[in-house]
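User: I'm putting together notes for a lab meeting next week and I want to include a structural view of one of the chains we've been expressing. I don't have a solved structure, so I'd like a prediction I can at least talk through. The sequence is below, exactly as it appears in our construct file.
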Amino acid sequence: MESSKKNIVVFTGAGISAESGLTTFRDNKGLWKQQRLEDLATKHAWEYDPERVLAFYNHRIAKANAAQPNAAHHAIAELEKYYDVSVITQNVDDLHERAGSTNVIHLHGRLNFVQSSLDASVVYPWHGKPILIGQRCEFNCQLRPNVVLFGEPVLHLDEARTLMLEADKVLAVGSSLSVQPAAGLLNEASAHAEKILISKEVKTKPFDYQFIRGNATELVPSVCANWLRES
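Assistant: Thanks for the context. Below is the predicted structure for the 231-residue chain, given as structure tokens.
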């Protein structure tokens, strides 16, 4: 029997994690301002200096492991009481899962997993531990972070497009919508869906979205509470 619940898709970016203390890459104090992107998060960087790349990502792993879900994460998880909810996130932390969301699609990978440097489909849970040179997969290749480096394809894009198209409601949170192709997913939503975008700033507001400028922790709980009252 098919569910009679309406579908909600929540699309999240770095801004929601920033309110849990995780530095974003693109604000004025972001990590890209302190380090060269080319030295840390590209395929070439991994091949040229894997130790430096691992040091950077091990720092990110430790920070993400210490962070806690905030009010926005918890409010999104609460929607599952009365809706079928899918979270599509650009973030590589697991704050949505720890808040209680059960269907989370990570477009750019996950810091609490590792993968083979030979075959990206060979993935292992890692649970906040640092990744060391010499730690190898079953094919005797170095392990690396399970994150999408620049120059690599985004994950689960077709699944995300389908979910967006089928959504009755879309809530986008904390994304500047400057990173493609992920940002383009918002344009896949049905014309009949209710669509809300909450962010401090956006590069270009997608068509037919209600834009509310501000903090996720202040605004998301209110939107979610309204939707719960409608259910």
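A couple of points you could mention at the meeting. The beta strands are 7-12, 84-89, 104-106, 109-116, 123-125, 143-147, 169-173, 194-199, 210-213. The longest helix spans residues 50-66.

User: Perfect, that's what I needed.
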